[in-house]
Design a protein that fits this description.
mainly alpha, 3 helical TM bundles of succinate and fumarate reductases, 0% strand, extended
């Protein structure tokens, strides 16, 4: 029985499959939703520091202005825009529009383009580049 069991193929799992782009974006949508919850905690910290006085605010600005803080804020803004764009697509799908295979495939690409564009635009405006 053990020899027969060893000869059988193993059951494939997620590392074996090549997930389609729609599945990857759907998973990323869930991850960004969770990340946005963490970002809200960061926003509350910043508001708390703002209300606590100039010393607390300067300390929060120093933390958020460091390279690690800026990287976290960049990730937060990317998560916000991806979650927003994917949510808008779901609203469109709820109206029974864009459900065919070609529209769904093109909307995947549009989600990526809009997310990267909105993130770059917001950071460009924030740094006075745009």
């Amino acid at each position: 029985m053990t020899e027969q069991r060893r000869a059988r193929p193993l059951s494939p799992h997620l590392q074996v499959y090549d997930l389609p782009l729609a599945a990857r974006i759907s998973i990323l949508h869930r991850i960004t939703g969770t990340a946005l919850s963490g970002g809200i905690i960061l926003l509350v910290y910043w508001l708390w520091a703002l209300a606590s006085g100039p010393e607390s605010y300067q300390q929060a600005q120093a933390i958020l202005g460091s390279w690690l803080g800026l990287l976290i804020l960049l990730g937060f803004s990317f998560a916000l825009f991806l979650h927003l764009c994917h949510g808008i697509r779901h609203l469109i799908w709820d109206m029974s529009a864009g459900l065919d295979k070609s529209s769904a495939a093109s909307s995947n690409i549009w989600i990526i383009i809009l997310t990267l564009g909105l993130t770059a635009l917001s950071w460009g405006l924030g740094f006075g580049l745009a």
